[in-house]
Amino acid sequence: MRRPWFVVSLVLLAPLAAQQPAPTPPPAEPRERKQQNYRYDGTSQPTPGNTGVHEVRKEGVVERQETLRDVNGRPVTTRATQERVVSVQGDNRVSERVVQRFDPGGRPNGKLVARIETSRAADGSLMTVETIYEQDLNGRMQLAERRTTTESKAPTGGTTSIVVERPSLEGPVQVVERTDRVDTKRSDAVTESVSTLRRIDGNGRLEERQREAAVITKSGSVTNRETKQWEFQPTGKVEFVGRSVSNITDRPDGSQVEDTEVYATRIAGTTPDLNRPGIPTLEQKVRREKKVRPDGRVVETTSAQIRRVAEPDRLSGLIVTEQVTTPNPQGQTVEITLTERDANGRMQLVQKSVEEQKK
Protein backbone atom coordinates (compact mmCIF):
# COMPACT_ATOMS: atom_id res chain seq x y z
CA MET A 1 0.00 0.00 0.00
CA ARG A 2 1.03 3.62 -0.37
CA ARG A 3 2.72 4.99 2.70
CA PRO A 4 0.61 7.44 4.72
CA TRP A 5 1.71 11.06 4.66
CA PHE A 6 2.88 10.96 8.24
CA VAL A 7 5.29 8.02 8.19
CA VAL A 8 8.05 8.82 10.68
CA SER A 9 10.62 10.89 8.83
CA LEU A 10 13.62 10.07 11.01
CA VAL A 11 16.48 9.93 8.53
CA LEU A 12 17.80 6.47 9.31
CA LEU A 13 14.70 4.67 10.56
CA ALA A 14 13.39 3.33 7.25
CA PRO A 15 15.44 0.66 5.45
CA LEU A 16 17.41 2.21 2.59
CA ALA A 17 17.23 1.01 -0.98
CA ALA A 18 20.75 -0.38 -1.00
CA GLN A 19 20.00 -2.50 2.07
CA GLN A 20 17.11 -4.39 0.60
CA PRO A 21 17.18 -7.88 -0.90
CA ALA A 22 15.37 -8.43 -4.18
CA PRO A 23 11.73 -7.35 -3.64
CA THR A 24 8.83 -9.70 -4.13
CA PRO A 25 6.22 -8.72 -6.74
CA PRO A 26 3.74 -6.23 -5.25
CA PRO A 27 0.08 -7.25 -4.84
CA ALA A 28 -2.48 -6.02 -7.32
CA GLU A 29 -3.49 -2.42 -6.73
CA PRO A 30 -7.04 -1.91 -5.42
CA ARG A 31 -9.72 -0.62 -7.75
CA GLU A 32 -10.55 2.21 -5.34
CA ARG A 33 -8.98 3.64 -2.21
CA LYS A 34 -10.07 6.36 0.20
CA GLN A 35 -7.64 7.66 2.79
CA GLN A 36 -8.30 10.14 5.56
CA ASN A 37 -5.45 11.59 7.63
CA TYR A 38 -5.80 13.17 11.07
CA ARG A 39 -3.43 15.20 13.24
CA TYR A 40 -3.64 15.68 17.00
CA ASP A 41 -2.26 18.18 19.50
CA GLY A 42 -0.21 17.34 22.59
CA THR A 43 -3.32 16.16 24.45
CA SER A 44 -4.51 13.72 21.75
CA GLN A 45 -7.20 16.17 20.61
CA PRO A 46 -7.80 16.51 16.82
CA THR A 47 -6.50 19.64 15.10
CA PRO A 48 -7.88 21.33 11.96
CA GLY A 49 -6.34 20.83 8.54
CA ASN A 50 -6.93 17.10 8.04
CA THR A 51 -6.07 15.78 4.61
CA GLY A 52 -7.63 13.08 2.45
CA VAL A 53 -6.97 11.06 -0.71
CA HIS A 54 -9.50 9.41 -3.06
CA GLU A 55 -8.12 7.20 -5.83
CA VAL A 56 -10.04 5.25 -8.49
CA ARG A 57 -8.67 2.82 -11.12
CA LYS A 58 -10.80 2.16 -14.18
CA GLU A 59 -9.90 0.81 -17.62
CA GLY A 60 -6.20 1.56 -17.25
CA VAL A 61 -6.70 5.10 -15.92
CA VAL A 62 -5.92 6.11 -12.34
CA GLU A 63 -7.53 9.28 -10.98
CA ARG A 64 -6.46 10.64 -7.60
CA GLN A 65 -7.81 13.62 -5.70
CA GLU A 66 -6.11 15.07 -2.64
CA THR A 67 -8.04 17.35 -0.29
CA LEU A 68 -7.46 19.54 2.75
CA ARG A 69 -10.20 20.60 5.15
CA ASP A 70 -10.46 24.38 5.53
CA VAL A 71 -11.21 26.31 8.73
CA ASN A 72 -14.92 25.54 8.26
CA GLY A 73 -14.30 21.80 7.98
CA ARG A 74 -15.06 21.64 4.25
CA PRO A 75 -12.79 19.58 1.97
CA VAL A 76 -10.91 21.69 -0.59
CA THR A 77 -9.08 20.01 -3.47
CA THR A 78 -5.34 20.72 -3.36
CA ARG A 79 -4.17 18.38 -6.12
CA ALA A 80 -5.77 16.22 -8.82
CA THR A 81 -3.76 13.57 -10.65
CA GLN A 82 -4.57 11.41 -13.66
CA GLU A 83 -2.32 8.55 -14.80
CA ARG A 84 -2.89 6.57 -17.98
CA VAL A 85 -1.07 4.15 -20.28
CA VAL A 86 -0.57 5.61 -23.74
CA SER A 87 0.84 2.52 -25.46
CA VAL A 88 2.31 -0.93 -24.74
CA GLN A 89 4.34 -3.05 -27.17
CA GLY A 90 6.15 -5.93 -25.51
CA ASP A 91 8.62 -4.45 -23.00
CA ASN A 92 8.15 -0.97 -24.47
CA ARG A 93 5.63 1.13 -22.58
CA VAL A 94 4.59 4.77 -22.61
CA SER A 95 2.46 6.33 -19.87
CA GLU A 96 1.46 9.85 -18.86
CA ARG A 97 0.78 11.53 -15.54
CA VAL A 98 -0.99 14.91 -15.32
CA VAL A 99 -1.00 16.79 -12.00
CA GLN A 100 -3.29 19.80 -11.53
CA ARG A 101 -2.53 21.91 -8.47
CA PHE A 102 -5.01 24.22 -6.73
CA ASP A 103 -4.68 27.25 -4.46
CA PRO A 104 -6.23 27.41 -0.94
CA GLY A 105 -9.49 28.60 -2.50
CA GLY A 106 -9.75 25.55 -4.75
CA ARG A 107 -8.83 27.40 -7.98
CA PRO A 108 -6.41 25.81 -10.53
CA ASN A 109 -2.88 26.96 -9.83
CA GLY A 110 -0.38 25.35 -12.17
CA LYS A 111 -0.01 21.99 -13.87
CA LEU A 112 2.65 19.31 -14.20
CA VAL A 113 2.78 16.76 -17.03
CA ALA A 114 5.09 13.74 -16.89
CA ARG A 115 5.71 11.37 -19.79
CA ILE A 116 7.25 8.04 -18.80
CA GLU A 117 8.84 5.88 -21.52
CA THR A 118 10.20 2.42 -20.74
CA SER A 119 12.14 0.29 -23.24
CA ARG A 120 14.22 -2.89 -23.27
CA ALA A 121 17.60 -2.74 -25.01
CA ALA A 122 19.21 -5.56 -26.98
CA ASP A 123 21.57 -6.35 -24.07
CA GLY A 124 18.58 -6.90 -21.78
CA SER A 125 18.94 -3.65 -19.82
CA LEU A 126 15.79 -1.68 -19.01
CA MET A 127 15.68 2.09 -19.56
CA THR A 128 12.99 4.40 -18.17
CA VAL A 129 12.92 8.08 -19.17
CA GLU A 130 10.59 10.35 -17.22
CA THR A 131 10.25 13.84 -18.73
CA ILE A 132 8.45 16.45 -16.63
CA TYR A 133 6.93 19.66 -17.97
CA GLU A 134 5.67 22.46 -15.73
CA GLN A 135 3.23 25.24 -16.55
CA ASP A 136 4.75 28.72 -16.34
CA LEU A 137 3.02 31.99 -15.40
CA ASN A 138 1.90 32.44 -19.00
CA GLY A 139 0.26 29.03 -19.14
CA ARG A 140 2.93 27.49 -21.39
CA MET A 141 4.36 24.03 -20.60
CA GLN A 142 8.13 24.20 -20.10
CA LEU A 143 10.63 21.39 -19.65
CA ALA A 144 11.40 21.13 -15.93
CA GLU A 145 13.28 17.85 -15.51
CA ARG A 146 14.30 14.66 -17.26
CA ARG A 147 15.13 11.55 -15.21
CA THR A 148 16.72 8.54 -16.92
CA THR A 149 16.95 5.23 -15.06
CA THR A 150 18.96 2.35 -16.54
CA GLU A 151 18.82 -1.10 -14.90
CA SER A 152 20.91 -4.11 -15.82
CA LYS A 153 20.71 -7.51 -14.09
CA ALA A 154 22.91 -10.61 -14.20
CA PRO A 155 23.23 -13.83 -12.16
CA THR A 156 26.10 -12.23 -10.22
CA GLY A 157 24.26 -8.99 -9.42
CA GLY A 158 23.26 -5.87 -11.29
CA THR A 159 23.72 -2.15 -11.80
CA THR A 160 21.36 0.83 -11.66
CA SER A 161 22.03 4.42 -12.74
CA ILE A 162 19.71 7.41 -12.35
CA VAL A 163 20.62 10.59 -14.23
CA VAL A 164 18.68 13.81 -13.53
CA GLU A 165 18.79 16.67 -16.05
CA ARG A 166 17.33 20.17 -15.70
CA PRO A 167 17.44 23.35 -17.82
CA SER A 168 20.37 25.56 -16.88
CA LEU A 169 20.25 29.35 -16.52
CA GLU A 170 21.87 29.61 -19.95
CA GLY A 171 19.10 27.47 -21.49
CA PRO A 172 20.56 24.05 -22.41
CA VAL A 173 19.64 21.01 -20.36
CA GLN A 174 22.46 19.81 -18.10
CA VAL A 175 23.04 16.86 -15.77
CA VAL A 176 22.55 18.05 -12.18
CA GLU A 177 22.50 14.74 -10.31
CA ARG A 178 23.58 11.14 -10.84
CA THR A 179 23.11 8.03 -8.68
CA ASP A 180 24.99 4.80 -9.39
CA ARG A 181 24.36 1.53 -7.60
CA VAL A 182 26.16 -1.80 -7.95
CA ASP A 183 24.77 -5.03 -6.47
CA THR A 184 27.16 -7.97 -6.21
CA LYS A 185 26.04 -11.47 -5.29
CA ARG A 186 28.98 -13.02 -3.43
CA SER A 187 27.15 -16.30 -2.80
CA ASP A 188 23.60 -17.60 -2.38
CA ALA A 189 23.66 -16.17 1.16
CA VAL A 190 25.60 -12.90 0.77
CA THR A 191 24.84 -9.82 -1.34
CA GLU A 192 26.76 -6.53 -1.30
CA SER A 193 25.53 -3.15 -2.53
CA VAL A 194 27.33 0.14 -3.07
CA SER A 195 25.43 3.32 -3.97
CA THR A 196 26.92 6.75 -4.79
CA LEU A 197 25.09 10.07 -5.23
CA ARG A 198 26.74 12.95 -7.11
CA ARG A 199 25.39 16.49 -7.53
CA ILE A 200 26.56 19.40 -9.65
CA ASP A 201 28.80 21.89 -7.83
CA GLY A 202 29.38 25.60 -8.39
CA ASN A 203 31.88 24.84 -11.14
CA GLY A 204 29.48 22.67 -13.11
CA ARG A 205 31.14 19.38 -12.11
CA LEU A 206 29.42 16.37 -10.59
CA GLU A 207 30.74 16.04 -7.04
CA GLU A 208 30.17 13.06 -4.72
CA ARG A 209 27.70 13.97 -1.94
CA GLN A 210 26.64 10.64 -0.45
CA ARG A 211 27.84 7.05 -0.44
CA GLU A 212 26.31 3.94 1.07
CA ALA A 213 27.60 0.38 1.35
CA ALA A 214 25.51 -2.56 2.54
CA VAL A 215 26.06 -6.26 3.17
CA ILE A 216 23.03 -8.54 3.33
CA THR A 217 23.49 -12.04 4.75
CA LYS A 218 20.74 -14.66 4.85
CA SER A 219 20.87 -17.80 6.97
CA GLY A 220 17.70 -19.88 7.07
CA SER A 221 14.85 -17.65 8.23
CA VAL A 222 17.15 -14.87 9.48
CA THR A 223 18.39 -11.95 7.34
CA ASN A 224 21.13 -9.66 8.63
CA ARG A 225 21.78 -6.19 7.16
CA GLU A 226 24.77 -3.97 7.87
CA THR A 227 24.90 -0.54 6.27
CA LYS A 228 27.52 2.22 6.38
CA GLN A 229 26.95 5.79 5.19
CA TRP A 230 29.18 8.67 4.15
CA GLU A 231 28.15 12.28 3.41
CA PHE A 232 29.81 15.43 2.09
CA GLN A 233 30.88 17.65 5.00
CA PRO A 234 31.88 21.34 5.38
CA THR A 235 35.51 20.13 5.34
CA GLY A 236 35.05 19.50 1.61
CA LYS A 237 35.37 15.74 2.04
CA VAL A 238 32.96 12.82 2.07
CA GLU A 239 33.15 11.51 5.65
CA PHE A 240 31.72 8.54 7.56
CA VAL A 241 28.50 9.66 9.31
CA GLY A 242 26.63 6.55 10.38
CA ARG A 243 25.85 2.87 10.26
CA SER A 244 22.96 0.56 11.02
CA VAL A 245 22.64 -3.11 11.89
CA SER A 246 19.41 -5.06 11.63
CA ASN A 247 18.24 -8.64 11.96
CA ILE A 248 14.98 -9.87 10.41
CA THR A 249 13.42 -13.20 11.41
CA ASP A 250 10.63 -14.67 9.25
CA ARG A 251 8.31 -17.22 10.81
CA PRO A 252 6.26 -19.96 9.11
CA ASP A 253 2.94 -18.33 10.05
CA GLY A 254 3.82 -15.16 8.08
CA SER A 255 4.83 -13.11 11.10
CA GLN A 256 8.13 -11.23 11.17
CA VAL A 257 10.39 -9.55 13.74
CA GLU A 258 13.05 -6.97 12.90
CA ASP A 259 15.51 -5.38 15.35
CA THR A 260 17.61 -2.42 14.19
CA GLU A 261 20.27 -0.29 15.82
CA VAL A 262 21.21 3.01 14.17
CA TYR A 263 24.41 4.91 14.93
CA ALA A 264 24.88 8.49 13.71
CA THR A 265 27.06 11.57 14.16
CA ARG A 266 24.00 13.83 14.29
CA ILE A 267 21.18 13.88 16.83
CA ALA A 268 17.72 13.50 15.25
CA GLY A 269 19.45 13.60 11.87
CA THR A 270 20.22 17.33 12.02
CA THR A 271 22.10 18.46 15.15
CA PRO A 272 25.84 17.67 15.45
CA ASP A 273 26.80 15.72 18.58
CA LEU A 274 29.23 18.12 20.27
CA ASN A 275 30.07 15.60 22.99
CA ARG A 276 31.34 13.05 20.42
CA PRO A 277 32.12 15.04 17.26
CA GLY A 278 32.44 12.84 14.20
CA ILE A 279 31.85 9.61 16.13
CA PRO A 280 28.69 7.62 15.27
CA THR A 281 26.72 7.13 18.50
CA LEU A 282 23.63 5.02 19.17
CA GLU A 283 20.79 7.13 17.78
CA GLN A 284 17.87 4.71 17.58
CA LYS A 285 16.81 1.23 18.63
CA VAL A 286 13.90 0.05 16.54
CA ARG A 287 11.82 -3.11 16.92
CA ARG A 288 9.28 -3.98 14.24
CA GLU A 289 6.89 -6.87 14.73
CA LYS A 290 4.47 -8.16 12.12
CA LYS A 291 1.84 -10.65 13.29
CA VAL A 292 -0.91 -12.44 11.39
CA ARG A 293 -4.01 -12.90 13.56
CA PRO A 294 -6.32 -15.95 13.30
CA ASP A 295 -9.10 -13.70 11.92
CA GLY A 296 -6.84 -12.64 9.01
CA ARG A 297 -5.84 -9.25 10.39
CA VAL A 298 -2.19 -8.27 9.96
CA VAL A 299 -0.79 -6.12 12.78
CA GLU A 300 2.57 -4.41 12.32
CA THR A 301 4.00 -2.50 15.29
CA THR A 302 7.16 -0.39 15.17
CA SER A 303 8.65 0.92 18.42
CA ALA A 304 11.51 3.41 18.04
CA GLN A 305 13.60 4.53 21.00
CA ILE A 306 15.32 7.71 19.85
CA ARG A 307 17.95 10.16 21.05
CA ARG A 308 16.85 13.76 21.61
CA VAL A 309 18.87 16.98 21.48
CA ALA A 310 17.97 17.80 25.11
CA GLU A 311 19.30 14.43 26.32
CA PRO A 312 22.04 13.34 23.91
CA ASP A 313 23.44 10.63 26.21
CA ARG A 314 20.41 8.33 26.24
CA LEU A 315 17.46 7.15 24.17
CA SER A 316 14.80 9.18 25.99
CA GLY A 317 12.27 9.46 23.17
CA LEU A 318 9.76 6.81 22.16
CA ILE A 319 7.62 6.72 19.02
CA VAL A 320 5.23 3.81 18.38
CA THR A 321 3.55 3.21 15.02
CA GLU A 322 0.88 0.54 14.62
CA GLN A 323 -0.58 -0.56 11.29
CA VAL A 324 -3.62 -2.85 11.30
CA THR A 325 -4.79 -4.35 8.00
CA THR A 326 -8.27 -5.88 8.22
CA PRO A 327 -9.60 -7.86 5.23
CA ASN A 328 -13.28 -7.69 4.30
CA PRO A 329 -15.43 -8.98 1.39
CA GLN A 330 -14.93 -5.70 -0.55
CA GLY A 331 -11.16 -5.45 0.00
CA GLN A 332 -9.45 -4.31 3.18
CA THR A 333 -9.10 -1.46 5.69
CA VAL A 334 -5.69 -0.16 6.73
CA GLU A 335 -5.48 1.95 9.89
CA ILE A 336 -2.19 3.46 11.04
CA THR A 337 -1.70 5.29 14.33
CA LEU A 338 1.38 7.10 15.59
CA THR A 339 1.87 7.83 19.30
CA GLU A 340 4.76 9.60 21.02
CA ARG A 341 5.89 9.80 24.61
CA ASP A 342 5.52 13.33 26.03
CA ALA A 343 7.61 15.11 28.66
CA ASN A 344 5.54 13.51 31.44
CA GLY A 345 6.14 9.99 30.18
CA ARG A 346 2.62 9.54 28.76
CA MET A 347 1.98 8.19 25.28
CA GLN A 348 -0.02 10.72 23.24
CA LEU A 349 -1.77 10.15 19.92
CA VAL A 350 -0.06 12.32 17.30
CA GLN A 351 -1.35 11.19 13.89
CA LYS A 352 -3.74 8.66 12.40
CA SER A 353 -4.54 7.43 8.90
CA VAL A 354 -7.55 5.33 7.83
CA GLU A 355 -7.63 3.87 4.33
CA GLU A 356 -10.48 1.89 2.73
CA GLN A 357 -9.45 -0.26 -0.22
CA LYS A 358 -11.84 -1.94 -2.65
CA LYS A 359 -10.90 -4.75 -5.02
Shape estimate: globular
**How far is it from the N-terminal to the C-terminal residue, by CA?**
13 Å
What is the number of helical segments per DSSP (H or I, 4+ residues)? 0
Q: How many strands in all?
A: 22
Structural class: mainly beta
Instruction: List the secondary-structure elements in sequence, H or E.
Output: EEEEEEEEEEEEEEEEEEEEEE
Rounded to an integer in angstroms, the radius of gyration calculated over CA atoms is 23 Å
Q: What percentage of residues falls in helices of 4 or more residues?
A: under 10%
Poorly predicted regions: 1-23
Biggest beta-sheet profile: 20 strands, antiparallel, barrel
How confident overall, as mean pLDDT?
90
Beta-strand residue fraction: over 45%
Task: Describe this structure as you would to a colleague.
With 359 residues, this protein is an all-beta fold. It is built from no helices and 22 strands. The chain has strands spanning 32-39, 51-58, 61-69, 75-89, 92-102, 108-120, 126-135, 141-154, 157-167, 173-185, 190-200, 206-219, 222-232, 238-250, 256-264, 266-267, 271-272, 281-292, 298-306, 317-328, 331-341, 347-358. The strands form 2 sheets. It has a 20-stranded antiparallel β-barrel. β2 and β3 (61-69) form a beta hairpin. The chain is globular and about 55 Å long.
Summarize the structure.
This protein is mainly β and 359 residues long.
Topology:
Blueprint: E1 32-39, E2 51-58, E3 61-69, E4 75-89, E5 92-102, E6 108-120, E7 126-135, E8 141-154, E9 157-167, E10 173-185, E11 190-200, E12 206-219, E13 222-232, E14 238-250, E15 256-264, E16 266-267, E17 271-272, E18 281-292, E19 298-306, E20 317-328, E21 331-341, E22 347-358
Antiparallel strand pairs: 1-2, 1-22, 2-3, 3-4, 4-5, 5-6, 6-7, 7-8, 8-9, 9-10, 10-11, 11-12, 12-13, 13-14, 14-15, 15-18, 16-17, 18-19, 19-20, 20-21, 21-22
